[in-house]
Batch of 2 targets.
Target 1
Amino acid sequence: MKVLSINAGSSSLKFQMYEMPEEEVLISGRFERIGLDKAFYTIKYNGDKIQKEAELKNHGVCVEILINELLENKVIESLDEIKAVGHRIVHGGDKYSESVVIDKDVIKTIEDLSSLAPLHNPANLMGVKAFMKKIPNAVQVACFDTAFHQTMKEDRYLYAVPYDWYKKDGVRKYGFHGMSHRYVSERLSELVDKDYSNVIVCHIGNGGSISLVRDGKCVDTSMGFTPNAGIIMGSRCGDIDYSIIPYIAKKRGLSLEEIDTILNKESGMLGTSEISSDFRDIDEEIAKKNKQAIMAHYLFVNSIVNYIARYYVELNGRIDAIAFTAGVGENAPHVRRMVIDRLSCLGFKIDREKNDAIRFGKEGLVSAVDSKIPVYVIPTDEEVMIARDTYRLSNCE
Ligand code: ADP
């Protein structure tokens, strides 16, 4: 059965088509600069990667092109072969603790939740609506970034603000990157070969979050009400003292919106290093002994160490494994080494050789044999999680 896995943003749409349940990727690609000039799309198929320029007026046009490409490349003979489409939806609020088949009510709820994710939910819905129009017979499934974290208890997700803010306006920790945390924690449990496991998942990419997962259920996670909380990220500040906001607003005459943009897009590694939000650029500067790059790097590592140590202590050290994933976690051995070295007092120990060898999509153990806790690198695969849920739910229809 053919299943499409879709991740639609405001100006991009990523797709992957699977043969399920084999989980074989048949074709994948992305549309970029939707609604803008110089729009283009790339497709990976049969080991080839092609890039084409196209006028991508809206998401509907992308779906049109995507389907033509599927037919032209003979991935499908007819549209009826696409039985189900799974969509990544950023915010499911506290309404959804798992993926669901999309109907009118679900669309309405996702729309209502847009106040919590004004940039993401409307963009995700554009993708949903475009596919519903073009392939009305396919089952459409919503897979929420927040759903996996809905198992957090009140004493984890509440902030110490008036309770009324939570009750009336939904101010609480939601957590994000749920599909990734779920994928990696499930894989980690397989690797440690235990039915019940306590694991820490470090998803460190341009955005980053760390989760504590017990028996497959999220206990706590570093992102909060928005993805801007937790560890330092490429351009997001992570946890800060909120009082900075009114202080800097007054001092510089900035509006709340302007500060919000700065804390999301001009802070984190970019803000502290004044070089880039991309760790590769910062690494280049570190190699040249750029002091500010080195400082930014330490600050970043500190924020990761703090979360791992906190979760470790909270479970009295009963952690079965930890895993690194996403752009930095999978490809930057020196970050993993610095983090693990800092945790040596807890019995963590890196195997330098193994650690240096695991990059670019490889999975494996990077800790030493005498490390108290095994440390793995597990390349994340949010798309396959979407395809799995979509396949499962469409078979229940
Ligand atoms: P997101 O999905 O949050 O946009 P990714 O998980 O794709 O991010 O991670 C992208 C980031 O990973 C890049 O911005 C870069 O900082 C980092 N990255 C990718 N490759 C490397 C590498 N070889 N060394 C260091 N950092 C890398």
Target 2
Amino acid sequence: MIIIGSDHGGLALKTALNSYLNSRDFEVIDAGTTGAESVDYPDFGQKVAETVIAGEAELGILICGTGIGMSIAANKIPGIRAALVTDAFMARMAKEHNNANVLVLGGRVLDEQKACELVGAWLDASFEGGRHQTRLDKITALEKKYAQQ
Ligand code: RB5
């Protein structure tokens, strides 16, 4: 299961990615937004991130205008590794090295074809583990060190 969410700046790309994911037979939860009116990206970042952490979706995709706000928001949730990517190499590395469980895209940065290409590169890649797991463990340790009591 994949959960996908956007603000108004990412709505068009979210619609295109929903079609792409359906064409590849992925089950998709659409967390919104559904209309063109201005909304606040942290609300959708929170929904997607919490659904992934709850195990109700294995992966999440977030889209805002640039992807910057969504990545900042999603990475506040412990256990989320949200990667903002702009090319296929970054998308593949986000899985192979960072085991990103959320991919973040900019709706005002990428066209639909490019966005589908990046999502495909991320989905088709596999985490390499090993020294990369050691580094992720250090990120988890940082989360624990700075967790609010
Ligand atoms: C909304 O105008 C815009 O700020 C948002 O989509 C995103 O780009 C924020 O990082």
